[in-house]
Queue: 4 jobs
Job 1
Amino acid sequence: MVDDGRTERSGLPASTWRHSLLRIASACAIGIFLSFVMPQIVGDDYASRKAARVAAPFLGALYHADTRDSKITVLLIDDQALIDAGTTWPPPYDYYADVLENVANYAPRAVFIDLIFSSARAENVQRLVDAINKLKSKKTKVYLAASLDEHGKLSVRHELQISAARTVAVEYDPDEVDHVVWEYPTTNFGDHKEHPEERRETQAERPRSAALAIYEDLFGEIKDKREPLALTWGLAPVTDGLEWTLAPAKSQLHAASGEAAHAHNAAEKPSLYCNENQSTVPLIVQTMLHAAIPDHGKPACVFHHTLYQRELLYPDETLSARHHQMFDERIVMIGTAFDYSNDIVVSPIQGRIPDIYLHAMALDNLISSKGEYIPAVKFEPTPDWPHVRAFFLLLTGLIGVAAVMLIKENLLEKWEHAYHARCVARARARATTVHTAREQRFYRVQDKLLDAARCIGLKAGEIVVSVLLVGIVFVAGQKFFHVAYLSAMEVTLYALVSEWLEWNTKLVGWFNKSEETS
């Protein structure tokens, strides 16, 4: 039978608005239903995290690098720095005093030390206190990482508690499913989280996270900071970032004989563990492939400019100019990058990196958004504004799903009609030229293979186009509604799956048949 352009899937022409709307509504209903049911059956949804991780480089490419290039510098202490200082881990307090004294030679706006000084060692900490006070006298704000005690209060060694430094919380919870850090706490941490109503009453009294404290002290108070920050990880890598290499025995570069650690000539340094490609499109593609297939390629290199503490030991003219550029009027965030360290976070773009980059990225998010950060809320029926906005973002994502379906209905159906018309014409032509049974079998097999290849190609193209289209809609929704996309990704992913597998088509067909028989 010759196709007349109307695919009779449900008893109605596929191009009618009624049929299209039913398909859209059914796919969305399936998506919402499965997003609630599947985690209850198979546990938390790993598929949505995987999809979000693949989409992260695309979103990261849209994240501007203005803040990182003008306001934030990461200063790393590594194994080689301890070797050069003739010490081991943990180094004495005087070693950290030396680090702060070196930084005080410049004019940073703030200094954050991501090391918790809580152990009651016998050694004196007065030099460290003096170094903190020296920075304070130069109008540099100093922040010390602190642990939370059983009462949810920040705690460091007593002498440092009464110094000029401000204590901040550094706890965070990686995702329980994929261990990626998707969100960053503001004033509520781990086991010390309270009921939302209680958080409203005690918000001003609660300990602040490192990024939040630095932002509020330097740029202004954030009014509503109840919800954690939904992190957007920037993609564009710096050329002076983390120096870990591919060789396990030499996991880091080290400076020697006064040479700069960051060699700009690629021939002078071994292959980095990460992808430092400065071309955006290839970097997006390669990072997305690595997210989808971990053994394929490399993650992107870190987003923030980095100095190693050992570089400060070689003050030649070239390095001195670089140090002024990296420190003057900057927020200096000091962390560690030791071999075999547990101070590691997992970024959806950069993979495993020292956790100081988490605090740098969170602060970057706050500064870039001018404090109007994206709250990390889940899609659930909670009557407050963040959750209402999350619901609108969900609707935005489902608009993308609807667009995919309408394209299929109005474009692919025409292609199908044209294809079947060509098949009919070719069959009629062969009827006059093909006579032997062998030739007929050959052409039948050929037609089946071509048809299978066409179907696979169309389905793959449908998946790629729909993912790109929904991704674009998500970005627009995120910018407009100012909401994280991870939770809404679950619903949209299941809605797309229902369209790819045509569950909704079968559901609409069953509905229409039931309606006709009644």
Job 2
Amino acid sequence: MRTLRLALCQINLVVGDIEGNLEKILSYIDKAVTKQAEIIVFPELAITGYNPEDLLFYPAFIKKAEEALNEIIKNVKDFIVIAGLPVKKDDLYNSAAIIANQSLIDVYHKIYLPNYSVFDEMRYFKPGSRIPVYEYDGVFFAVNICEDIFHPSLPGLIQVANSAELIINISASPFYAGKYQKKTRMLTTRAYDMGVYVCYLNMVGGQDEIVFDGRSLIISPSGDIMAMGKAFEEDLIIADLDIEEVTRTRLREPKIRWEICFGDREIIKIPLKRKAKSKVVLSRKESAYEMTEEEEIFKALTTGLRDYVNKNGFKKVCLGLSGGIDSSFVALIAVEALGRDRVIGVFMPSRYTSKESRQDVYELVKNLGIELIEVSIDELFEEYLKSLSDTFKDLPQDVTEENIQSRIRGNILMAVSNKFGWLVITTGNKSELSVGYATLYGDMAGGYAVIKDVYKTQVYRVARWASRGRIPERVFKKPPSAELKPGQIDQDTLPPYEVLDRILYLHIEKCMGQQEIIEKDFDRDTVKKVLQMVKRAEFKRRQAPLGIKVSPVCLGKDWRFPITNRFGG
């Protein structure tokens, strides 16, 4: 009987921390060896972390990754390790090293280089052209990298036509809500259509604005999920594969019998014998339950914030608390991500702050168990008004005075940050940032925008799911307001958020112009106003802090519009 024990090491890596990544890789090799794993797999660019971006232009960085690879090779004996790293030959490649017997058996180069959304791999890498298959004591397996498996032909189909019974795909696939379900359908279809085991390994953790959700998969030749990695957590997934199942499946359903392999058939023999193993079958389906959108988004936000704070060495975070839903939700995320002792709320009331907002801030702080600093902005605001009284003589108060209040608050938060070394996290949502309903150098001031990619209506839904009574009930029910003038509510300036968010979704995620959106049964004047606001706010978005991507089109690397732009749409 041909069986194979596989270990998928779903780990959280740090870009540029090659020494730390190496240490983690070696520790997981040790764990997998104790489980009698024969093939031990690590994610795409595991040695350097994903994505190194312009670090890849530095020869010293590439050399350091090569040195780490050599260290791994020394520690690989009578088993196989597959690990991702950048490799410099005639050019630079996104590669997978195949290691056994303290030797580098081969290096596979990624063929399909994504150059959309947050990806920019064609800036750095040359695509590979070889499509080898590896023989391990009568078991034939192939390796490809992330985007390679997303294509229905090359390289997977040729690998299978060249005898591969197992495809190992190492990946760094960023999260957005709903992507996992689409990806799972694609991977199970690949396995079923080709009658092959598909072992998909995704990394986990946050890197700047992107989050990797893990949820690695081992899929049988009949398209059934055999094992699944944990969501948003490190994991070691061990599974025993009955390779004869491939033969049985293909004899029953010979879907690839007539596939023609073009080019030379490259089979690389690995000089190892398969080992006798314990009889325990270790495959499992932990975390196989379907997450709701609310749970997915909340876990992504907490993972992204936790890793950004920890990987960049911040001890604590601070944020402005207003008594509204956005700041309450961000405070809740921060506590979940970091613990209550590492989160500081700053309440900065003014003459326009309502009694209810004050009560809601203090109730939230009590429920979350976090420290609160209160600094009134009234005296500072009055000083601004006095200092500008001659300049603004005979002119009515307008958005200028509103923005002064917001910028005073931004200054206070940054002063606290400078004094104590805390990271300021901002609380603006995607709806506000899209239309510019935010103050540059005011409520936009900070180092990390936690809910930058979450629409206002999503904020309410996810916050309700996550709250468990910690966010005061009134926060969910009162009309949202910036409280920068008497009686102000958001809907004085914006359409209802249910309408606004739908228009923004169609424009941002679906690339619809004005007339197309109007034809979806929206009011013409409302659509025109919203799209004009989006266009005018581009200069603000360029200066906003980075934030966590949870949608297909985040207002960061996914969104690249010229500020100077006369296209009407």
Job 3
Amino acid sequence: MSRTNFRRSLVAASVSALFALSTPVLAANNDGTITGKITASESQSSIAGATIEIINTKTGFSKTIQTDENGQYRLRALPVGTYTITVSSDGFSSTKVESFNVGIGNQSVNLSLNPQVGEVISVTGSRVAMVDTSTSESALNISAIELERIPVPRSVTSVALLAPGTTRGDSRFGGASFGGSSVAENQIYINGLNVTNFRNGLGFSNVPYDFYDQFQVKTGGYSAEFGRSTGGVINAVTKSGSNEFEFGANVYWEPASLRENSPNVRKSDGTWYSYRSDNESSDLNFNISASGAIIEDHLFFYAIYNPRKNEGQYDSTKTGGNFGDYSSDTAFWGAKIDWHINDDHRIELLAFSDEDEEVTDTYIEEDGELKYQSTAYDKSGGMNWSARYIGSITDNLVIKAMYGELNYDLSSGSNVADECQLVYDYRYYYGALTDVPVNGFSVGCATSNDYFVEEGEDTRKAMRLDLEWQIADSHLLKFGFDHETNTSASLQKYSGPDGAYWLVNNAQDAYAGVTLNGVVMTEDTDYIRNRFRTVSGNFETTASAIYIEDIWNITDSLTASIGLRQEAFDNKNGDGDTFVKIDDMLAPRLGISWDINGDGESKLFANYGRYFLPVANNTNVRLAGNEYDSRTYYVLEGWQQQTFANGNTYYDPILGEQIGAVNILADGSVPDTRSVVDADLDPMAQDEFILGYQAMINEDWRWGVKFTHRVMDGAIDDMIIDHAIASKFGCQNYHPHQYVLGNPGEEMTVYTDTNCDGDVDGWATFTPEELVYDKAERKYNAIDLNFARQWDGVWSLDATYTWSQSYGNAEGLVKSDNGQTDAGLTTDWDFPELMDGAYGYLPNDRRHQFKIYGAYEVIENLTMGFNFNLESGRPISAFGLGHPNVGEVDYGKTYYISQAYEDENGDTQYTYTKVGRGQMGRTSWNPRLDLNLKYEMELMNMQTQFRLDVFNVLNSAAETRVNEDIELGLGKSNPDYKLPNAFQTPRYVQLSASVKF
């Protein structure tokens, strides 16, 4: 066989698994695995005992193995990097695969050997990556090299958004939604260390883009090795050193002068609803890196230092707000040590600090001038490290062990926190205040930037042990254990001498004719609400899991993955006592992949998996801490002008008669754990079904189609049970609030008040009918259609269309409707009327989405890339202040309603129609086109790169979120309903340059 024919026969079954979306890969933590089969080219018979040698061309790491009796082989626990693969056998010519890039997970390399003719046949490794017929997992594997060709914002979230089935979350949260799940249900790992924010699931450790080497984005069907996620998993590996000493430096600049602003919005009366023309933002990042060998072939280092400067301003004075000037400039540092003790044993050490502090100077407008008000700070990040051992005990047994610690600062405060209170006048905000004797919406001397004060820190201590044992030619057994201890320290309060904040309103807008704390309000009553809330303590959660999985090669063309994961978590209160403990979570993971023709060119695959989500530490702090939370209402008599220390004026409210009693939601004591959690609490779980097909079109192109179905099996949230207590035990006007963490729509057993005296005294079981709560539901269906052309040195293309729907009555751990980050304790299910009409299309529902990206080498060393995304709009709901059954208003606009109107006499009528959530239209389609140019050259013996990235080239300004409050008050329509609250990120430009030598 000629070299040309050999290449054609090999590549005809190949695609780039490194640059193609949704390419299934076998979970292998942070290492690479190469599997394949060696056959004779003429007879296609298996070659037993063939020798496969793999050598990392930069570190000298090597492994040698022989094929089994079926001609199959498996090279495990390979550090990611570039390798040369050599295959030899008596009577055959040797074959060498050069420049083969080993990424995270499994890759297949099947080779045919020619009868010995005295030559070594070479193949370029970038072209050898077949459809992996051994797995049913769905994931995107992509390296920093591939990402350099296309314009992608420099964030892990932006990489995740390249994968099918992922959508951008609400702008108030950030992050990505995987398969209809909320953005707080994902897990992010760096070199095996879980760096996800466990307080509420939002965010993760902020590592510079240039520190990463490989990304694996698991969108579904992942193995029993991974858990604690009902969304997706992002598995990243940082760069490492090699035998070559390398020094590099680069700069990324996003100038404010080349950044557009989102549109301004006016109300129907012509006044400003939002004004953004004077907003500015710029970002400047430097990276300085060094790597090399401390001991050649054995001990390597990589270090990076990242000075950075982000600064900008916002101006909301035209809408009654403040002017802010913000900046952050704390440098990041990171280091990686790799010790290859020998080719069978190695140790990896990782350490980095992502400490950061954003400082905001706030100004108020007074007499047409900006006057300094305060300086607020928000701290984040911390010191993190991990140590990892990988050992090949025998050719058939691999052991991996990891221990790491993560710290994340959550402190915030200001220089006026001791003396300034927040006072908001919603009469101004709703346009009901005709005489404005005060500063507008923000009345007091505190602002939204500095009224919340917290001293807090989250600490994770994590360990895991994984083993892979090839117990027979057809069975690879994987099993392991992982354990995390997650501790949240928190001291929270509101600013000011009284530690409270105030909200002002007018009865004609919200309370006319209804009862507030036992007092019937009249239309001309101005009232003010005081909220006082504190919580403190140390709260610990332990989470552990064991798993076992068998990768079973049933036949040469049929592979099954049979796994089982058992998870447990134990959440403790401020006294260290358990208040939630679930240890019987069994998560089966079943997958099957069929190489239809036995040639590696196509496969049919299916997968079923169950996934669990632990209770967030936010629940420990809020529900099981020593929280005190009270609300007191007063008649507003007027304002008293005060002078701030800097000479600015502000106003304190003059309080009149108290309206009713103090409403105490939490009394400051650590509650009896039996009274706040359902004794038979079930975990939040999700079942996932996947069916897909993938095939080669020719040696350059491949295509695939995949169907995904996800069903959330129950949720965990807090529910008030006052009404059930009153009904079950015959209480009259039962008042003490009892919030219980439970499964909505399910039976509940809890320690409660059985004699109506206001104190818990005995166990009781409430049926779903007595609790009157709907069962929590979330369903997701999707079809992904993908075409991809691998990079051949000239051009590449990847295109995916996704049709999907996400519907039910529960978004998940957080709530995009009102921007609530209170994970596990959202306003959903706080009482039954809040969920009336809540079933419908959920906020992360995007019915249609197109993702197309690629690159083209215009001339030698000049590459152009593009990244286009088009998605349909977000469903719009209608939220009102109350419900006909209860007239409840204290929760704000959180009820699902449809309309409010005035009758023929001009009297306000309030009606409720169950149209369901997400039924009031959708936001506009969101198109976005990103382009880049990259030029490489050698300058003074240095590899130099110049780059221009333009994001949102056409400056598309489609709205991404609108005002969904349909009422200003009970029965009073909101003229600002459906006005845009947020838009796509406007056009901005990134200029960059780098050198390496």
Job 4
Amino acid sequence: MKILIVDDERMICEWLQFCIGQNPECQLTGCAHNGEQALALFQENEPDVVFTDIKMPVMGGLELLKRIKEISPETVVVLLTAFAEFDLAREAIRQGGDDYLLKTEMNNQSFKEVLERLKKRVTKQEVSRGGAETESTGRQHSIIGDILREGRTLGEEDVKKLKACNIRWRDEGLFAVAVWKKEVLEEFILPENPEVHHVVGFEYDRLTYVIVGNLERDRTELQKIQLLHEYGTAIVQKNRCMAGISTVTGSLAHVADAIIEAACSLSRGYYMEKEKVWPAEMAGSEIRSLVKRWESGYRKTRRELYEVSGQEFYQTMEAVLDHAKQEGVFPVCMFAAFCCDAMEMAYMRFAGEDAKLMHHMLLEEKRAVSESVSYAESCKKVTEFIRNALAYQEMDERNLSKGVAAAVDYVRHHYSEPISLESVSREVHLNTEYLSRIFKEETGCTYSTFLSETRLQKAAYLLSHTPERVQKIAESVGYPNVSYFSTTFKKRYGVNPYEYRRGEEKDAGNHGNV
């Protein structure tokens, strides 16, 4: 398997080269530090897999992804990203990216596992090339993916592109069936049915695989519905899986509606956890409208989680999980991404700087939730992780010793001043080393973490509720250097102060709630 690395951080490149070099079945074909260099190396060496950073000079990862998929749609592109760039990573997946890795989660063992999965995928692609009717070429994947991500009605040019790639869907009896992608990767059996034609399969998102085709001509609408249900049932029985099916449409222009209907129907199976055929209950246009509302609601809830106490954090997450279960149709990838964000927030806010065990748990649980196709499993992992994180941090001030309680109170009243642990120690009449130790033991976090959290929470409130300039706010919460304040704020909230304020203003009139 040939691999190309693209990242403007040389240490990341060197580390990836080291890991790849330990795997004899992998060949490093080149290492580039921006998208322009990478594109030249890609065209020269034709790698099977490209690991690329998102933010780079000259040409960024999103543009590089687009150019690579135009040249070779079957090439696997994995985005390397930081937690703060989750939105960009999700955008990359929508634009045809195959997967993403968090830089903070990468270690030798986990990266070795990633390489193993990619080798299986590349091998499967090589074996499957040949053009059978039930298989999509890489070009078909790319075109269909573009159609899905835009969620639009197809025009004449779209239809011409499809036909040029040997996709023969016609304006009659169009349907879509969605299954979990992991089922397809594990010897999936596509049933033969003489009344089902022009079948094409492709990866819809990180978890879902969609099959699209035509039903036999000259059938009544009721017969088409029955035929599609029988076809979906055959898929479920042969593969012991669940499947979501669309309504039947007579217009190729509306195939994107059928696809999103099937994916949404499969989501119901995720929440209900029954291996059966799940029929469509909503039209594609209605689903797209709901997705926009859900995305807005999740953004709002994310911001709320940055502000609330530990117990409120847990209660908010319980409400989100219960609501998702009741609705039963939230897109699974979006729901899983939100759960992973919440666990990351819980770790950063409540686990403490030195909670190595919690960090290890975070990596494992986020991967499990991202790959899970079971609501109950994901829900259990999320709630248990947050409970564990809160166990490190949950502060009952009634149980604090007199000295620590005095230190906490002093910080909350003087956070805008340049107070150090030494100065606080003098104020509460305790030895500095002793205060440092018992502060961590009793509050669950270090003094510096508590001070930083207090300042940043106040800054976030001022950004949301006052028109004060960012520099003025930074100074008022104890950061005379606005550049350092911006860096620290972004590390904590995922966006810089200016972006945070714009997001708050945008959501100010939004009534969509999760």
